[in-house]
Amino acid sequence: MILIADGGSTKADWIALDENKEQLFKVRTGGLNPAVVPVEVLRARILEADEFSENLDAVTQIFFYGAGCGTKTPIQLLTNILSEIFLFAEISVNEDMIAAVYSATLEPGIVCILGTGSNSCYFDGESMHMQVPSLGYVLMDEASGNYFGKRLIRDYFYGLMPKYMVEKFENEFELDPDAIKTNLYMEQNPNMYLASFAKFMFDFKDEKYVRRLMKKGFEKFFKYRILPYQLNSDTPIYFIGSIAHYFREILDDVADKNGLVITDVIQRPIDNLLEYHKQNIN
Questions:
Q1: Structural domain tally of the chain?
Q2: Do 147 and 217 lie in a common domain?
Q3: CATH no. for residue 214?
Q4: How many CA atoms lie within 13 A of 77 on its CB side?
Q5: Which one, 23, 34, 118, 276, has the greatest CB density within 10 A?
Q6: Would you list the DSSP string of 56-71?
Q7: pLDDT in tens, 20-63
């Protein structure tokens, strides 16, 4: 059995293939970002899937692509955990940007992620090149779920959120200051916690306040994560993630103002990633 995983901070999508590359099952677990999730939680989230516990010894290969897997330490950590669980599997762990590239294109282009976090790279047709490393939700992650979550919370407390949205915001989230500070500074996965607020924007995606918020976030993403590549106007640009999917119109407007065109937006990369591996697994 072969397992292919697209592991984000909020959730991880897995697909299992048999020896003939036919799909056996698809399952979703909790987020598996080794940079922010403790080892015992990573292990528990994998083992909570019945499909895995019933097939531990049958897995021969694992291709895992995940948030937080861009440096040696978290890659080794997750590799060790997977090796302990799937004893007979050959394991490959890579960062989520590589999965984004494989799901978007095999030709040269810019590939971007707008999920719980955000990132971008230039793919030259063979290798991935990044202008700057991702330093996560505290310092970077422009236009990501946690970026917009921060701004919604801040605007609420500063009185900048429109009054007609405030009541729904209060009904949907626990906004006691002590509860927020506990989640941010004492609990696990603060980036995931912040990103959970971003879903609020989907209910008001046509409102002026939300559109302005999205536009500013996308403008920052283009400034720091796309324009430094100094690409030609005809360079293909691909986006991965639900934020890009649901706010495609605003994303297109920002691209147009920079003389660029977005080639495609892929909400969930796992299916495209599956097709890539079907063609490339020996």
A1: 2
A2: yes
A3: 3.30.420.40
A4: 20
A5: 118
A6: GGG--EEEEEETT-SS
A7: 888 999 999 998 988 888 899 999 999 988 888 888 899 999 99
